[in-house]
Amino acid sequence: MKIKCQSCGATDLYETTDLYNPDVPLHGGMLRLQDPYRKFNWPIYDGALGDKSTPRFRMMCTRCSGYITRDGKLSIIDEPVHEKIEEDQSLACPECGKVCGSLAGLGAHMRVHKDKG
Questions:
Q1: Is the alpha carbon torsion for 2, 17, 26, 13 positive or negative?
Q2: What are phi and psi of 73, to 5 degrees?
């Protein structure tokens, strides 16, 4: 999950790892840099933070030098996952064969045929 900087609002720098558990105190092993920043090997940020849990864990944002965490709390961004419809699973109009990218799009298109008839 993406992490939002609580100072500048940036969401493109950090994400949680598989070790993240909101029910335990935060530590450095729970966060990492997102791609493409991971390749820069910024040792003071990516996993080099102590693995020792602390209720006052604080992590600085590389963009604004503000804090990503405050009092051990993260601001998590839950983004909806949009699955791409494969061509063989596409939604085709039964009336004219037009291929739509979503069920909502097909429903809107079908109204065109309803209005004609």
A1: negative
A2: -110, 145
